[in-house]
Write a structure and sequence with these properties.
Length: about 180
């Protein structure tokens, strides 16, 4: 499948993304997460525009909003796989959320030994990308991460209030699943 890049879209390698995260973490400590997420948000719009071009070229569809919900997981997996981020499975969770699961996400570093999920750039990128796809504000919280020795990265996507409740449950040591249905 062809990916049409333009002057606004560039490709960087996994090692570069990992080096960027390491450098920011060393220099900024906990603030690195905020800065990486902001950078991810900034790139999400351009990745979305690349998706629109890709979808038009591969499926003859110029309006991603017209995608059938049953095809979303396959289409996003094909796209993110083609641009090097990794394959994904998207599923509905709770009453109004989505989970995006991936066994091979580019930002994750299984050798990192991170104490908690840390694909911060991706959380920002996915929030902006899916927000544009859904035409609303989307919050993202990574709850499993290969950098933290999980088998997959799992990003929860939904309304900010719902993700705040999920974060609260996790910070209190509770299961997050009930918060998805609240």
């Amino acid at each position: 499948m062809s990916i049409e890049l333009n002057g606004d879209t560039v490709v960087i390698g996994r090692r570069a993304l990992s080096a960027l995260r390491e450098a920011l973490t060393q220099d900024l400590g906990e603030q690195a997460a905020v800065r990486l997420q902001e950078a991810g948000h900034a790139s999400g719009a351009e990745v979305y525009e690349c998706f629109v071009r890709w979808l038009t070229a591969t499926a003859g569809m110029s309006d991603p909003g017209a995608l059938d919900a049953s095809a979303l997981s396959r289409v996003l997996s094909d796209f993110f796989g083609a641009i090097g981020w990794g394959t994904v499975v998207v599923e509905r969770v709770g009453t109004s959320g989505l989970a995006l699961d991936t066994p091979n996400w580019a930002e994750a570093d299984p050798a990192a030994g991170a104490p908690f999920p840390s694909c911060y750039f991706s959380a920002g990128l996915l929030g902006e990308f899916v927000g544009r796809l859904a035409n609303c504000t989307i919050a993202v919280l990574e709850v499993e991460c290969r950098s933290a020795s999980h088998a997959r990265c799992r990003f929860l996507l939904g309304a900010p209030a719902m993700l705040d409740a999920v974060y609260q449950a996790i910070s209190e040591g509770r299961d997050y699943a009930p918060a998805l249905s609240a």
